[in-house]
Amino acid sequence: MSAPKKVCFITDFFPGIHKKWFGAEIACKRLFELIDDNGRSGSVILTGRADYKEEMSPHIKEVSVLENYQNQIGVFLKTAFPFDPIAYRYFSRVF
Questions:
Q1: How far apart are CA 82 and CA 77, in angstroms?
Q2: Tell me, what's the pLDDT at 27?
Q3: Across the beta sheet with 8-11, what order do the strands follow?
């Protein structure tokens, strides 16, 4: 018997924990539910800062992104420099 496979879903928004979400996020949620196997798969969902933290389950993790700090920086770096070093650092540790 092979070892269980783990899947990591990465999405900007997720139904139930964000105010806005669309078709791709619904598809992500359905796919996660199909492979989750009642919480035993070890799969995880990585997403941006949640609007409804109380609705987050243990398999959902928040990722800090540069957009979270734009007000402190004072400029919209995302359009001028489309690379997020904060998210990159997080993902390099996770993977």
A1: 7
A2: 92
A3: 8-11, 44-47, 60-62
